[in-house]
Amino acid sequence: MTLEFWFLIGAILVFWMQAGFAMVESGFTRAKNAGNIIMKNVLDFCIGTVAFLLLGYSLLLGQDSFYGLVGAPNFDLFLNFKDFIASPSDGGFTNASAFVFNLVFCATTATIVSGAVAERTKFSTYIVSSALLSLLVYPIEAHWIWGGGWLAQRGFHDYAGSCAIHMVGGISALIGAIWVGPRIGKYRRDTNGKVAKVNAIPGHSITLGALGVFILWLGWYGFNGAAATSPSELASIFLTTTIAPALATVTTMFYTWIKTGKPDVSMCLNASLAGLVGITAGCDALDAVGAGIVGVVSGLLIVIAVETLDIKLHVDDPVGAVGVHMVNGIWGTLAVGLLANPNAPAGIDGLLYTGSVKSLALQTLGCGAVALYTLVFMTLIFVILKKTMGLRVTADDELIGLDLAEHGLPSAYPDFAPAVNKYSSIAAAEGIVVTTGDTPVAEAIPVKRTPSFEETTLRDPNAPKFTKIEIICKESRFDALKNAMTKIGVTGMTVSHVLGCGVQGGRPEYYRGVQIETNLLPKVQVNIVVSKVPVRTVIEAAKTALYTGHIGDGKIFVYDVENVVKVRTGEEGFPALQDDDAK
Fewest C-beta atoms under 10 Å: which of 27, 81, 316, 542? Predict the structure, then answer.
């Protein structure tokens, strides 16, 4: 009873991993598709439940048939429910517990595909592909490994699913990404149709991505540990499940730091998941050293896989699903044959400990067979769907975002607006600017003036002159600018949040190994209309407040204004600019 209770708690943790996948995928993609990502992750589980309920469960855990190739379909869940929930499965737990546990594993396999085909796939087509994966692909290959099938009979070892779940999900993701094609703007082609430039498309929220990774890591303790049969085995599994992702993340951090000059945040998040995938097959068969080796290799593999797929093979995988799950699923499966310690709970003879190649050969055979089955079946599924339903949304729908195009959702963040980051340092408060660059003031903060309007007979030549000064600056310098304007007597201004970019030189920045060329950055636009205060005084005060010596400090535009009208009082001209207290 105690073991079965923990088994079900583990199933709950695995279910909670759906939230982690949703956060990672939405964070690593653009905001205009966040609702679509959430919808797909919810439906992966719900549609998968229907498919697994109807046929998938019995194909996985039904009586072994056809020489270990598939479980015999049955409907005991519907026709003999009382005996079904009470009778034990092959694993020793009740059929009801086995159903729930294997269902959440099935949903995990299906949801891996979502991120790789994100931002351009028809929702209807995706749901059908997810249902077919849960109905026919995962249950059959999982029967080979966990349902008493031909691989299980030969001693193939995949304790928690590096092969059965992650490699299968990763291969399905790769096939989907290839057949759907890249997102618009991802690859720039020359006149011959060859890719001439790879463009980075950063995700909209690394914060959500990080939250998803932490949720997944937590859930992974149930993912790997739920089937443990003793406290010592569970402790050993928790140990290896902690070591591998930690070392993978550290390895990726240093690798990307050396490679590009800065540690890559998104790649390190992928590395944590890669290490978890890598240790899943052998979490009960490896010791601490083996788990560490798995982690280091996973940390290197994830960067190489993501960059090779994107830069060399031109397969667009927005979240790195193929690198995380397929590549490291294969590595984790083979690592059992290489690094298994006979003294670990599983008692498997790994090559490096015993010199025996038997386990490695069997792991290779099983990995290859499952990969081949998945490759053939999922290719067939995507080809048929492409010919019948179509895989991609229209170009217009892709550009406006799948939230609106597929679900009628204008935005997943309807109330979101960027806020000015308060520049809270003492230096800013005192109006002191630290100059760190050597770009001349004229280039760092260029001033542009429009031609003056011609005087007309309708305007009094002796009337005060009005000038509008438009200042665009970094958010971090807004407080300093506001203080400078107050000191020279400017008390009224209109402030807007804008996004902008310019042609700027300097050190290139990288996102997932791809150089970022154009990036819209948040700016503040300040509009001021003056008459009594000299325009040159405003310009010089603004330049002093904004200048740090770098291109991008800001721009100042100057316009002539014909007249000023205060709506509340009807006053025009100079009186309309005055504060009531000043009258």
Answer: 81
Residue keyed to tokens 């590009």:
260
CA–CA dist 71, 56 (Å, integer): 9
CB 325, CB 313: distance < 8 Å: no
Q: How far apart are CA 544 and CA 25, in angstroms?
A: 44
The percent of the chain in helix, strand and coil, each rounded to the nearest 5, is 55, 10, 30
Tell me how far the alpha carbon of residue 267 is from its chain's centroid.
10
* R_g of the chain, CA atoms, integer Å: 30
DSSP-assigned beta bridge partners for residue 572: 565
CA-to-CA distance for 581 and 583, rounded, in angstroms? 6
Rounded distance between C-alpha atoms, residue 57 and residue 73, angstroms:
8
Give the integer Cα–Cα distance in Å for 160 and 329: 11
Which residue ranges of the chain lie beneath pLDDT 70? 1, 89-92, 417-445, 447-463, 501-508, 517-520, 579-583
Cβ atoms 547, 441 nearer than 8 A: yes
**DSSP annotation of 310:** I
Report how far residue 557's alpha carbon sits from residue 445's, in angstroms, rounded to the nearest whole number. Answer: 10
Residue listed under structure tokens 């439940």: 49
Strands 554-561 and 195-198, sheet pairing: unpaired
Rounded distance between C-alpha atoms, residue 48 and residue 456, angstroms: 74
Measuring CA to CA, how many Å separate 46 from each of 33, 42, 43, 169? 20, 6, 5, 17
Q: Which two tokens stand for residue 406?
A: 């597929």
Cβ-in-10-Å burial (0-12, 13-18, 19+) of 135 comes to buried
**Which strand ranges, in their side-by-side order, compose the sheet holding 521-530?**
447-449, 554-561, 466-474, 521-530, 494-500
Write down the pLDDT at residue 435. 56
pTM greater than 0.85 = no
Report the DSSP beta bridge partners of residue 527: 470, 494
Q: Please report the pLDDT score of residue 436 as a whole number.
A: 55
- Nearest to residue 286, comparing CAs of 228, 245, 244, 344? 344
Task: Give residue 549's pLDDT.
Answer: 81
Give φ, ψ of 534 to 5 degrees: -60, 140
Nearest to 168 by CA among 376, 371, 324: 371
- Region for 68 from its dihedrals, namely left if φ exceeds 0, alpha if ψ lies in -120 to 50, beta otherwise: left
* The pLDDT value given to residue 140: 97
How many whole angstroms separate alpha carbon 116 and alpha carbon 25?
9
